[in-house]
UniProtKB/TrEMBL annotation:
<keyword id="KW-0138">CF(0)</keyword>
<dbReference type="GO" id="GO:0046933">
    <property type="term" value="F:proton-transporting ATP synthase activity, rotational mechanism"/>
</dbReference>
<comment type="similarity">
    <text>Belongs to the ATPase C chain family.</text>
</comment>
<dbReference type="Pfam" id="PF00137">
    <property type="entry name" value="ATP-synt_C"/>
</dbReference>
<keyword id="KW-1003">Cell membrane</keyword>
<comment type="function">
    <text>F(1)F(0) ATP synthase produces ATP from ADP in the presence of a proton or sodium gradient. F-type ATPases consist of two structural domains, F(1) containing the extramembraneous catalytic core and F(0) containing the membrane proton channel, linked together by a central stalk and a peripheral stalk. During catalysis, ATP synthesis in the catalytic domain of F(1) is coupled via a rotary mechanism of the central stalk subunits to proton translocation.</text>
</comment>
<feature type="transmembrane region" description="Helical">
    <location>
        <begin position="54"/>
        <end position="76"/>
    </location>
</feature>
<keyword id="KW-0406">Ion transport</keyword>
<keyword id="KW-0812">Transmembrane</keyword>
<comment type="function">
    <text>Key component of the F(0) channel; it plays a direct role in translocation across the membrane. A homomeric c-ring of between 10-14 subunits forms the central stalk rotor element with the F(1) delta and epsilon subunits.</text>
</comment>
<dbReference type="InterPro" id="IPR005953">
    <property type="entry name" value="ATP_synth_csu_bac/chlpt"/>
</dbReference>
<keyword id="KW-0066">ATP synthesis</keyword>
<keyword id="KW-0813">Transport</keyword>
<feature type="transmembrane region" description="Helical">
    <location>
        <begin position="12"/>
        <end position="34"/>
    </location>
</feature>
<keyword id="KW-1133">Transmembrane helix</keyword>
<dbReference type="InterPro" id="IPR038662">
    <property type="entry name" value="ATP_synth_F0_csu_sf"/>
</dbReference>
<feature type="domain" description="V-ATPase proteolipid subunit C-like">
    <location>
        <begin position="16"/>
        <end position="76"/>
    </location>
</feature>
Amino acid sequence: MDATTVLAQVSGSIATVGYGLAAIGPAIGVGIVVGKTIEGVARQPELAGRLQVLMWIGIAFTEALAFIGIATGFIFGF
């Protein structure tokens, strides 16, 4: 097996690998958003409802990055 054959095999799945790497960012972002919400509720429990709404909005915006990542995979030859 020469280098050209190996490169051809790798390039066939490069979009999948790219999306896998692109999904790491939103996962970290959601973890931070939820963690900070829990921290905020622990500090001021009376704001739990308001913080929860803001948390869901933050998660939605963070997950939009994952959707952009999968759309990019389809655009560039998934």
